[in-house]
Amino acid sequence: MQAPRAMSDYDQIAYVSGKTRLFGIVGHPIEQVRSPEMITAEMTSRGHDAVLVPMHVLPEDFDTVVPALLRMRNLGGLVFTIPFKARACAFAGELGAQARAIGVINALARGADGGWRGDIFDGIGCVEAFRRRGIPLAGRRALLIGAGGAGSAIAAAVASEGPASLAVHDVDAARAQALVDKVARATPGARIAVGKPTLEGIDVLLNATPVGMLDDPRLPLAVESIPPGVVVFDAIVKPERTPLLALAQRCGCTIVQGREMMRGQIARMVDFFYG
Amino acid sequence: MQAPRAMSDYDQIAYVSGKTRLFGIVGHPIEQVRSPEMITAEMTSRGHDAVLVPMHVLPEDFDTVVPALLRMRNLGGLVFTIPFKARACAFAGELGAQARAIGVINALARGADGGWRGDIFDGIGCVEAFRRRGIPLAGRRALLIGAGGAGSAIAAAVASEGPASLAVHDVDAARAQALVDKVARATPGARIAVGKPTLEGIDVLLNATPVGMLDDPRLPLAVESIPPGVVVFDAIVKPERTPLLALAQRCGCTIVQGREMMRGQIARMVDFFYG
């Protein structure tokens, strides 16, 4: 038991009050996410009284917890991360074009009419990260590992950039094929196909699996080295240097980190929340 | 659309991350609550990585939203305010002694076993506010207006202080009688009874109704003046000077504010959340 503090101490907390608009990121696990500090910073820097907090929801609770969260009247929006990006779609009354193409969202925003709009920002963020580094995707031969939520968005966004080829691999072959079919349908002329997890004839390697996250020492594909001309991207944000990126750096490859992808999409998501 | 910010800007937000433990205050309305800044300040000053956010839940959504909130794995506890202090009881697997007596809680904490413990802290806070001002309740004749959630807790706590009498009034006479019966049963020897909303023969007036909250200009009882010897307490925290307290000050009465009650209970609630 501690003695009560003076009132003036409490008044020093300026970042949350009864009027603060609430946002959340829903995921499992949750500790590794960066959205709380990144999106909160973006919102407050624009003058919004808002905070985005972590919401750790187990997969078996997702379908009952999310609709309840959406009933909170001061909730402005939710961000979804692994493993919920596909399932979250069900809660959007209205979907953005890219989200509609791949059936995946990573954000829900409350519309002016009170309904919930869903859209996906990972892919946009990945492409922007390459653009800002001056690394072209057009004309390159890319291999994407992982056809889940983030992988789907990246496939759709990268396919739109006009790569020479985009090979998609997933341990679940049917999931990879389904993604290829969806993106091909939504992007006429896209050179996208299911591919093998090999670096032969590949210029750009994109990891969109959770392999390598947190303390996971594994690589998302079985290689012992990477040709130095290959650009290696990893969608994982924690750790910043995943085992894959560490290997790529040892091999002299150019790397693009998950945090760079996040940066680009943060601004677009806050546009979406307050648009 | 704004340009993406540099990563270093995002890292300046130090008060929320994926590891932050989540707490909420559930109420309707919600904008007037002070728990977000007060309890967050108390938790962070003790070194906890935690934030308490406002959660605006409509009465018709309460029974579906609260159980869902409790399923969030990183939720450490909830605070309940008007109009939910009685209904919240249903979600506690285990109740503190005072909460059990009056069937009302204002906090749920996750126990070591994962179950939810409920307890009520308003009454403790009210009594502590009087103690710290050096105003005795023992031997005084008190009138309590309002037998809802806060009123019940205050009745139980004040009755334990040994007043000469404690009269309880509520616009719902049956509710006042039920509270009197509950406190009498839990506090043998307590001189508590249903009373009229009059200041005749009263030393201490306690308002535990929401009348006078925010922009409500009304008084919780029909008086035009208050004898200067009466000590007047108001449980409302916003505004700090309710119409009742303003009248009391004009009449030369000693006043005790809702914020003083909150101060005492904040420390005890954080003990409870992290106990």
Overview of the molecule:
The structure is a homodimer of 275-residue chains. By secondary structure, chain A is of the alpha/beta class. Chain A has 2 domains: 14-121 and 262-274, Rossmann fold; 123-261, Rossmann fold, CATH 3.40.50. In chain A, 33% of the residues lie in helices and 20% in strands. Chain A has helices spanning 7-10, 35-45, 62-69, 97-102, 122-132, 149-159, 173-186, 243-250, 258-274; strands at residues 21-27, 50-56, 75-80, 94-95, 107-110, 116-119, 141-145, 165-169, 192-194, 204-207, 231-234, 254-256. Chain A is globular and about 65 Å long. The model of chain A has no long low-confidence stretch (mean pLDDT 93). The interface between A and B is large, with 64 and 62 residues.
